[in-house]
FXL22 protein (Leiothrix lutea), 226 residues
Amino acid sequence: MHITQLNRECLLHLFSFLDKNSRKNLAKTCHKLLDVFQDPLLWSLLNFHSPVELKKDNFLLGPALKHLSICWYSERVKVCNTEDWMKNNFQKDFCKRHENTVSDFLLDVCNRCPNLLSLTLSGCGHVTDDCILQLLKNCPNLKSLKLENCVRITDHTLKAVTLHGASLQTLHVDFCRNVTQAGLERVREKCPSIMLRAERSANMIPDIKPEKRLMLEKASRKLVQL
């Protein structure tokens, strides 16, 4: 029995066990399998492990998407999450090459995936408050927002949650060093039903300009001398 003799339900079940590349390669073999590949039912969940994967043409983005995860774990994450003024020219060039990759993809999600229920971002150092704000506005059913080591996220995201996160049930901002205790308290006050977690966030040293950092270091040395 040839695979194309299986009914659509069986083919969808078969495709569901394959990763994105395998699905795409199988879809190239005939029109029937391509049609199955393009079925929205197959694309309610998407997981990505690097920004490069976002540029591949091996998945379908649309209203059927319910759960999205972009988790980037590598030494390069540390480079992108380093304050810009501390990076050398090589590191700056590397970061610039994909600075807008995740943000542009998320804006595409805003426009095409209004039924998104959960979003997890880890190590996405270039994602900004504005990007999360647009997601909250355009995906009103979002129930879970988990941000880890997204260093450009600040209290503006927390404020957006209180204004536009009516459906939100879970919020994680772990290792987001530019989130403050005041911002977290605001969320707890205005949205008490949200399960909020902020491991190693508000107690971390936020990004500050070199000049201000130097002033703080000098003041600290004077205190030690006294």
